[in-house]
Backbone:
């Protein structure tokens, strides 16, 4: 692509770094921005910069947060006794969208996957155990993807928690085995939370 | 969509204002940026803001420019005697990409389209006539889309230029009638520039 403006070339190149955005799409977006008011475009640019610069990860649940403690952990209306363990921020959002869960979260930051070189130590598992030790957590819901890696993770965490008076459950298999949690529709996700199982039942199901 | 961070919600909403970007895609892009270094994301945000704030429109050809006069108008290697008239900045880029044209441009900023309420006065036609008057322009190539509106625009401009010693040509109809110039492949576009016609021939073709 030949540009007669370095300003535009630079903006196009930056957009084209985003996943799924090719040079042609990047150019289309930049030319769209060119037609907007400078103030509006500045809002866009600053929203992006500020988001990355100011975002924090909640010191309790590792969810993204505007402050040291996230709005979910801080909410007095939410049930402290129940923690939903998920792989990622996206999963928190997916479950929040169902408006069916009133407990708290714990974001692992991934899933145990030896093939990808991800072991338990790279995930936020230690801090989960610490929360179970320190808090009045009565139930840990394992809401990880129903895959082999998910099962490994569930098994590993349940072993780590077995000496504490906490019930470990898993979300119901409304989601097809091998499916990704974040792509489940809200109804399925909500139902699989409501129909969650004690871990023993889950492990038996697999047999 | 439920967000636990206003920073993220704001960034997602800004992305979702872009054409063709829905909320889900916007979230995917924001979560991608979240994984990048803050400095990199700042570069992105600033490239966008700076682009819109600092961009100018060339005082001669109305192309986007980083300065008062664009890099094409300023280039001493380019032929002053030949001006290619296009509808938009995108068309300049499409033709520049062919690397087959060594003259200058004139960006109309649209096309005469009574149905859309766009008359000659809303377009950069007056400044084109002024350039023809003042400069040593020997040829004006009309490289507008081969549509009814394009033909109307060609006809209108050719009438405005008829008293000046300038040859008006049109790009060859390599592009299907009704097709949009900017979507033509580079080969077709390059060839249609090389095989451009004097306006008389073009008007006869239509009969
Ligand atoms: Zn939190
Ligand atoms: Zn120029």
Residues:
């Amino acid at each position: 692509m030949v540009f007669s403006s370095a300003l535009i070339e630079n903006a196009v190149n930056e957009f084209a770094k985003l996943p799924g955005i090719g040079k042609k799409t990047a150019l289309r977006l930049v030319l769209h921005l060119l037609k907007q008011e400078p103030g509006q475009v500045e809002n866009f640019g600053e929203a992006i910069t500020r988001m990355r610069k100011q975002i924090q990860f909640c010191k309790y649940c590792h969810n993204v947060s505007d402050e040291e403690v996230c709005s979910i952990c801080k909410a007095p209306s939410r049930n402290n006794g129940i923690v939903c363990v998920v792989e990622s921020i996206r999963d928190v959002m997916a479950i929040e969208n169902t408006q069916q869960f009133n407990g708290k979260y714990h974001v692992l930051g991934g899933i145990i996957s030896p093939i990808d070189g991800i072991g338990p130590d790279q995930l936020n598992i230690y801090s989960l155990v610490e929360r179970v030790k320190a808090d009045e957590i009565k139930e840990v819901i394992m809401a990880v993807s129903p895959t082999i890696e998910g099962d490994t993770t569930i098994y590993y965490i349940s072993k780590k928690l077995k000496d504490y008076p906490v019930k470990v459950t898993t979300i119901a298999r409304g989601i097809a085995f091998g499916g990704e949690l974040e792509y489940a529709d809200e109804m399925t996700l909500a139902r699989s939370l409501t129909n969650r199982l004690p871990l023993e039942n889950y492990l038996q199901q697999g047999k």
Observations:
- The pocket of zinc ion (ligand 1) is lined by residues A 58, 60-61, 63, 69-70, 72-73 (CB under 6 Å).
- Chain A touches chain B through 58 residues (CB under 8 Å).
- The domain at 77-205 of chain A is CATH 3.40.1360.10 (Dna Topoisomerase Vi A Subunit; Chain: A, domain 2).
- Residues 54 and 144 of chain A are 28 Å apart (CA to CA).
